[in-house]
């Protein structure tokens, strides 16, 4: 389970601002770390209405968000919660298994550039769909594998792709991914959004999220945005 504390970078910034002399080694380190965080162009709610949406859950949403953000045709990704019945869940409630929700992502994409079928391929190609209620070090139903569909066409695309994977016998164990009708998505707290991009020195990001992203990139190079290679 991910345990959130005050980000290391934020602590260093606070110490630097109040306790360190100017031009100190600590300040230089902070400046280097801050400058390494890439700038992201933010889209308004009105801008996002022009695009289609897709919803997936496959473990830690920090990891999943970063993966879909790297895919061409994807305009924005939000981390959040879906698949349960409790209204307006909090991160603490979901993380400790107090709701039926899974950590999920909301993907805004341009269907002229990438199709829902290709997003399903990204989903299955970026996690272990045979792992029940677990991805990497994260355990619990909140980390389960779920491919959500909004209509019969999307449902068929997901089920057909699962059948294809099973026919090709790509896995030694049965696929346990849930295929579920999408009902509602609750956007996670703001500090979770773009967490990997904003916190590149976080230990979980460095040891779990970035390696997972890099494995995906190795296998899906043709799907990547130009600046994601």
TrEMBL record:
So what EC number does this one have? 1.8.4.11
Provide the leader sequence positions: 1-19
Instruction: Name the reaction it catalyses.
Output: [thioredoxin]-disulfide + L-methionine + H2O = L-methionine (S)-S-oxide + [thioredoxin]-dithiol; L-methionyl-[protein] + [thioredoxin]-disulfide + H2O = L-methionyl-(S)-S-oxide-[protein] + [thioredoxin]-dithiol
UniProt keywords, alphabetically: Oxidoreductase, Signal
The Peptide methionine sulphoxide reductase MsrA domain extends over 53-204
Q: What class of enzyme is it?
A: oxidoreductase
Q: Name one GO molecular function term.
A: peptide-methionine (S)-S-oxide reductase activity
Q: Which residues form the active site?
A: 60
Which function does this protein serve?
A: Has an important function as a repair enzyme for proteins that have been inactivated by oxidation. Catalyzes the reversible oxidation-reduction of methionine sulfoxide in proteins to methionine.
Q: What family is reported?
A: Belongs to the MsrA Met sulfoxide reductase family.
Kindly provide the name given to this protein in its UniProt entry: Peptide methionine sulfoxide reductase MsrA
**Which gene name does the record give?**
msrA
